[in-house]
Design a protein that fits this description.
215 residues, alpha/beta, TIM Barrel, eight-stranded parallel β-barrel, 11 helices, 8 strands, 51% helix, 18% strand, binds erythose-4-phosphate, transferase, Transaldolase_3B, schiff base, TAL/FSA
C-alpha cells in the first residue's frame, strides 16, 4: 500500500514529502478553503512542482458539462493532476469522458461497494471510500475496503482503491491488510505512524549506555 497525504497545506506537504514515503497528494474543497491568500490553481502549481505523483484536484460543478470544463482546465495545470469527481450519475458521465481523453480520475465520496463498482466501470483511475465517515455513523468503514478489494480482484478491475477519511494509525494498518492500494492520510496521522514508546525507550537506553563506554 502506498501513502498519499490528504491536505492542501504546503508546509505539511513539504515536510511529509521530505520523509521519502509520500507518493501523492489528495485535496478537497474543504481542505483548500483552509488555505488563505493563495488561489487553488497556484497551490496546485506549487504541489505538482514538488510531488511528481498523483495530485487530486476536485471539481465544484455538479453537472457533467461543468465538471468536464473545470476538470480539463485543472488537468492542464500539470500532467500529474488527477481530477476528483463526486460519486453521482453526472460525476460518472464526466469520468467516462475524462477516461477517453486520458485524464486520470479519483471518484470521491464512495460509501458502498456498488458505487465503487460503478465508478470502476466508468473508467475511474481511483475510487476513494471514506473509512472514518462510515465509522462515524456506526458502520465499519474498513469492511467496505475489503469488499471493494474482493470485487475488484474477482472481476480483474484495475481501478485503485484509495482508503480515505483516515483518522488514526489503526485505520492505516487495517486498510493495508484489507487490500487498499493507497491510503490518503492527514499529516498528523502520518507523523503518528512513526511513534512507538519502545523505540523512544530503546534510543534513550542506547544513548545512556554509549555514555558509559570506557574507550
Ligand atoms: C479524500 O480524498 C478526502 O479528502 C478525505 O480523506 C476526507 O476525509 P475527512 O472525512 O476527514 O474529511
Amino acid at each position: 500500500m502506498k501513502f498519499f497525504i490528504d491536505t492542501a497545506n504546503m508546509e505539511e506537504i513539504r515536510e511529509a514529502y521530505s520523509l521519502g514515503v509520500v507518493a501523492g497528494v489528495t485535496t478537497n474543497p474543504s481542505l483548500v478553503a483552509k488555505e488563505k491568500n493563495v488561489s487553488f490553481e497556484d497551490r496546485l502549481r506549487e504541489i505538482t512542482a514538488l510531488v511528481p505523483g498523483s495530485v487530486s484536484a476536485e471539481v465544484i460543478a455538479l453537472d457533467a458539462e461543468g465538471m468536464i470544463r473545470e476538470g480539463r482546465e485543472l488537468a492542464a495545470i500539470a500532467p500529474n493532476i488527477t481530477i476528483k469527481v463526486p460519486m453521482t450519475p453526472e460525476g460518472l458521465k464526466a469520468v467516462s469522458t475524462f477516461s477517453k481523453e486520458g485524464i486520470k480520475t479519483n471518484v470521491t465520496l464512495i460509501f458502498s461497494a456498488n458505487q465503487a463498482l460503478l465508478a470502476a466501470r466508468a473508467g475511474a483511475t481511483y475510487v476513494s471510500p471514506f473509512v472514518g465517515r462510515l465509522d462515524d455513523i456506526g458502520f465499519n468503514g474498513l469492511d467496505l475496503i475489503s469488499t471493494i478489494a474482493d470485487i475488484f480482484a474477482v472481476h480483474g478491475l484495475e481501478t485503485e482503491i484509495i482508503a480515505a477519511s483516515i483518522r488514526h494509525p489503526g485505520h492505516v494498518t487495517d486498510a493495508a491488510l484489507r487490500g487498499a492500494h493507497i491510503a490518503t492520510i492527514p499529516y498528523k496521522v502520518i507523523m503518528q505512524l512513526f511513534n512507538h514508546p519502545l523505540t523512544d525507550k530503546g534510543i534513550e537506553a542506547f544513548l545512556a549506555d554509549w555514555k558509559t563506554r570506557e574507550n
